[in-house]
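ingest -> fold -> write
write: protein_1
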Amino acid sequence: MTESFDTFAFEDADVGVRFEIDARFAAGPRVEPAVTTAQAGAPRPIAEVRTAYLTAALGADRHPVLSVSAVAVEYEMTREKLQGDLALHNERGAQIAAEKGWTLIRPWELAELGGSLAMRCEYVVPPPARLREHGEEGELELPVTPLHLQSWIAYVGRWTYQVVLSSDSDRHLDNDRALMETVTRTFEFIAAAPAAGA
C-alpha cells in the first residue's frame, strides 16, 4: 500500500522552479553555482549549473534526495531531435546496465514536465560488494543498499533542467514513485534561470 503524506510548495528563484513535495523533505544548504569549463585554464566558462536539493529521513533505510539543476545550453531541443536521440540514450543505457548490473525499470521515454518537452527513466543501481570507511578506530564496514533513481530531463528554450529523485533503498519503489509523481505533476518553471555569470 502506498503511503500518504502532506505536501508543501518548494520554490527556488535561482533555479527557476516551483513544485509540491512531501512535507517531510527539507531544503538542503544553498548550493553555489558550479562552473564547468572545457579544460583547466579555459578563458571562459562553458556553462553555469544552478542546483537546489531537498532531503528527508523516512525511516532507518530510506533517505531520499531530490536534486534539481539548470544549465544553459547553446541549442533548443525539438521533439523530433529528442525522439531521434532516445534510441542512442537507451542503447548506451542498456550497455552500462549490462556492464554494471543495473536494473532498468523504465528506459528513457518522451515525457512532459511543467508543460515543456522532457524525457524520463527509472533504474536501480546495485551496491558495491563492500564499502569501507576509514576512521580513527580502524575500518568500519557500512551497510549498503541498492540505489533507486528516477530521472527527468526537461528542455525549456536554451535551458536544460535535470530532476532526479534518488533513494537509498529499493524496498519502497511504489512510495518513491508516489513522491516523484507529486513533484512532476505540480512542477512549474517560474522563470528562465538567470543568465550564466549573473
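write: protein_2
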Amino acid sequence: MKTKAAAIEDRVDDLLIVLDKDIQHIQESLSRLNELRTLVIKRDDVALGKLLEEIRAEAGSFTANELKRRSIREGLAVALGCNFEQMTLSRLETILPEEKRVQAAERKTKLRSLTEELKKEHLSTALLLSECARFNNMLLKSIFDFGNKGTLVYSSRGTASRHSDGAFVSLQL
C-alpha cells in the first residue's frame, strides 16, 4: 500500500511541474497577445513576422507538455481506479495530504484566473483584428469601387452633387 501511495505522490509531483509549465505558457501567451496588438497598431510587419515565427517554433514544446499532462493524468486515474474523464484536480485534491492539496489548489486557482484573463485578451485581439479588416475592406472598396454609384459631395453653399467619374482624386476646386 505504501508503494502505491508513493507512486501517486511521485505522479502528483510530476503533475505540479507540468501545471507550472502550463501557467508559464499562459503568461507567455498573454504577453504575446499584447505584443501582437501593439505591432498591429504600429503596423510593424517585420516584427510581426518574427513574432509569428517564435510562436510556431514554440508550439511543439507546448504539445509535448500537453502529452505529458495527459500521461500523468491517465496514470493517476489507473492508480486511483477511476476513469480518465473523472481524474480532475478537484478530485485529486480530496485524496492528497495537506501540503500537496494546498499546492494543487494554488495552481488550480492560478490557472483559472490566467485562463479568464487569456479569454479577455483573446477577445480584445480578435476585435482589434476584426476592426482592422473592416477598415481595410472599406478603404479598398472606396478605392476600387469607383464609378459604380458615384460619390455624394457637398459644395460650400450646401448643394449636393454626385461625382461618378473614375478619378481617384477630384482636382475640381
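write: annotation protein_2
The chain is about 75% helix and 5% strand.
Strands lie at 151-154, 160-163.
pipeline exit 0
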